[in-house]
């Protein structure tokens, strides 16, 4: 399926999850982006695509989401990630980054302003031209990228099977030829910034 179609479908899925978990009808997405990365887990190399959405919630919506996350942890819908689910870098990174990977930015929507720079090799060993695609205005991207106090120390994995079972009329999007999918959520309580990630593993090699 076309990358842009996948990007949009994951964006819709993230928005639906935010609405359900925060009990908020609107979906105030700041930016979204997608990138590719090879990871090494359990003696295998995996080819992954990451579809990321970042939101700014209002106080009441954020409070509701935090309570929902705590309840979900207790019920087994959400659980703490372990090291095998790490993301944002390949094995043995030369540089670790937090809220956003330190990559060049590409524009996905031609009608939107975008920083256009040629991508070269990076600290994260990502060299594919155009592998990093972004929705959102430049000033929002820069505002979040430069917010050094925003961290996601509570990165959590969503149990996809439980979500599909418990959320009425909700079905997680799984692209064709996918080895596995992983859904992750983290948030910065003070700023009410929430990040959702869909990690799509497309290949596995020993």
From TrEMBL:
Name used for this protein in its record: Uncharacterized protein
Q: Which organism is it from?
A: Acinetobacter suaedae
């Amino acid at each position: 399926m076309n990358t842009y179609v996948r990007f949009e479908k994951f964006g819709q899925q993230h928005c639906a999850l935010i609405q359900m978990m925060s009990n908020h009808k609107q979906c105030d997405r700041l930016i979204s982006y997608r990138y590719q990365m090879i990871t090494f887990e359990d003696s295998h190399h995996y080819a992954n695509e990451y579809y990321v959405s970042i939101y700014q919630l209002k106080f009441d919506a954020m409070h509701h989401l935090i309570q929902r996350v705590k309840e979900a942890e207790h019920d087994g819908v959400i659980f703490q990630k372990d090291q095998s689910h790490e993301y944002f870098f390949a094995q043995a990174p030369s540089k670790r980054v937090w809220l956003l990977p330190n990559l060049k930015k590409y524009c996905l929507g031609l009608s939107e302003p975008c920083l256009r720079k040629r991508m070269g090799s990076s600290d994260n060993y990502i060299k594919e031209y155009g592998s990093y695609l972004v929705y959102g205005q430049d000033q929002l991207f820069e505002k979040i990228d430069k917010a050094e106090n925003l961290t996601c120390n509570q990165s959590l994995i969503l149990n996809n099977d439980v979500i599909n079972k418990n959320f009425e009329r909700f079905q997680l999007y799984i692209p064709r030829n996918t080895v596995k999918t992983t859904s992750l959520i983290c948030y910065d309580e003070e700023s009410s910034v929430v990040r959702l990630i869909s990690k799509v593993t497309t290949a596995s090699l020993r």
